[in-house]
Amino acid sequence: MAENIRVRFAPSPTGKVHIGNIRAAIFNWLYARHVGGTFLLRVEDTDLERSTPEAIEALLDCMRWLRLDWDGEILYQTSQRAHHLEVAEELLRKGLAYKENKGGQGECVIFRMPKEGVIEYDDLVKGHMKKKAKDTQDFVIVRSDGSPVFHLANVLDDITQGVTHIIRGDDHVENTFKHIMLFRALGAPVPRYAHLPMIVNAAGKPYSKRDGSAFVGEFREQGYLPDALFNYLALLGWAPGDDRELMTRDEMVQAFDFAKCKASPARFDMRKLTWMNGEYIARQPRPAFEAEFDARLDRAGLPRTPLNGHRDALLDQIQPRTKTYADLPANCAWFFAETYPFDDKAVAKRLHAPGTPDLLDQAAAALGPLPDFSPQTTEATITALAESHAAKLALYVHPIRVAVTGRAEGPGLFETLWLLGRERTLARLRDTAAKLREGTL
RNA sequence: GCCCCCAUCGUCUAUCGGCUAGGACACGGGCUUUUCAUGCCUGUAAGAGGAGUUCGAUUCUCCUUGGGGGUGCCA
Q1: Which of A243, A257, A369, A404 stands 20 to 30 A from A398 (CA)?
Q2: What is the predicted ipTM?
């Protein structure tokens, strides 16, 4: 029965949530919502050093940011310690585990694995899996310092929470054989397993901090939208089967299926994520975009009020061409501050041709006396100017843009001039021409 | 070393024996009556190799090669 399906996300809070980890959370969530089951959260906080209240809050914050809403109360693993140890005693009593002074570190409790036969299970994504008992080894379930080991705690908590489907990373496949024996020893039903392929870097190695952003917080910081990150991560190792890529949550929930999950590792491609993020930003409701826009302006120390009004018009121009929020301040500085930075590459490419200062002066002279400064008028004026010099419009457009904005990309030039207004346009053209003549640019 | 898993364009993927191998990102070209971007059109680009099964293999089987995971008193 669908409503009886219970899955869980069981991270250890370390302060930062790795994308590989959150991807497992996403698949758990997707599956739970697809079948109308329960998505549980368990915090494996047994590492007291790292599992600080701040680390736990960071984890929950990350879950909320991605709208991975969990069902019911959070289970904190440390609260189960007494139970874990009781069960270890029980296994000892039943002869399913034994004590040993391994390596002279004091007595630990070791779980007995079968010595013959095979352990097998059907993995929802990897298919039929089996391992010969002789290829497995007994393993420690309680350390000599009296603390329960991951395998014990993890399995017992899954029993406690009534988990029916365990969806986790590929790196746990070997553990699965141990866990299955533990479930059996405890007389608990063995859950179904789904092992997700790992996310790897461009070189095919496990994706780590060395490869760029590896933690959810970093993507957030860099201006990625949670829905975009969610969508992209969902598509790493899963595809709906048709050609859909940009999908809403509901569409993903509806289409999700382990049968469509790949068993091979997937490479993380930042370029595609960035493209997808741009698509999401372009589709954002204006108030949401504006709120983030303002926040980025504030942090960059730029005023929210533009030099020349026309804030909405700028937003109209900027929103569809924003890839990540992090780019925003640099892309708009010219619009909000009297002094704006010049992009070196843009300057080198568009302003260093001989005669450029004269060209900018010509433009200023032509634009100066205009009765109005609408895009139509300025375009007609610059077009006429270019024609009078038997030159292409582009010859004027590019240097003018860099001169007044400091950048090679941005809104259409004539919209830009209008956004800036006559005074500043003229001042900037002359100012840039002067700097070029002085050789200070 | 041993055990397990994986293998389609550079990348993410579709294909569940019939393929002129489709889509997306990225890249190149073109158009939007000579601006950035968008949009649209378009191009380059893939079935690791070898056997077998079959009328027919990218699809099924085996081997090789390559990659990944595991092999802790880490999780």
Answers
A1: A369
A2: 0.94
Contact A382, A430 (CB under 8 A): no
φ, ψ of residue A295 to 5 degrees: the values are: -60, -40
CATH superfamily, region A2-73+199-275: HUPs (3.40.50.620)
Q: How many CA atoms, within 13 angstroms, populate the side-chain half-sphere of residue A227?
A: 16
Class of the domain covering A344-438: mainly alpha
- Is the shortest CB-to-strand distance from A134 to strand B under 7 Å? no
Give distance CA A267 / C1' B9 (Å): 15
Alpha-carbon distance values, A147 to A88, A139, A144, A182 (Å)? 11, 14, 7, 17
Bases of chain B within 7 A of a CB of the protein: 2-8, 10-15, 22-26, 34-38, 67-75
Q: Which of residues 302-321 of A touch strand B (CB under 7 A)?
A: 320-321
A227 sits in which H/E element: helix A226-234
Residues A124 and A206: their CA atoms lie apart, in Å, by 22
Which CATH code is given to the segment(s) A76-196?
A: 3.40.50.620
d(CA A409, CA A304): 21
Task: Report pLDDT digits (tens) over A210-229.
Answer: 777 889 999 999 999 999 99
Q: Indicate if CB(A271) is under 7 A from strand B.
A: yes
Query: Which three-class secondary structure state does DSSP give residue A301?
Result: coil
Which 324-383 positions of A have CB less than 7 A from strand B?
A: 383
Q: List, for residues A174-220, the tens digit of each pLDDT value.
A: 999 999 999 999 999 999 999 999 998 877 787 877 777 889 999 99
Considering all nucleic acid strands, name the nucleotide whose C1' atom is nearest to the C-alpha of residue A102: B73
CA of A226 to C1' of B26 (A): 23
Q: Using the CB atom, is residue A270 less than 7 Å from strand B?
A: no
Query: Which residues have CB under 8 Å from A7's CB, separation 6+?
Result: A28, A31, A32, A37, A38, A39, A40, A163, A164, A165, A166, A167
What's this model's pTM, rounded to 2 decimal places?
Answer: 0.94
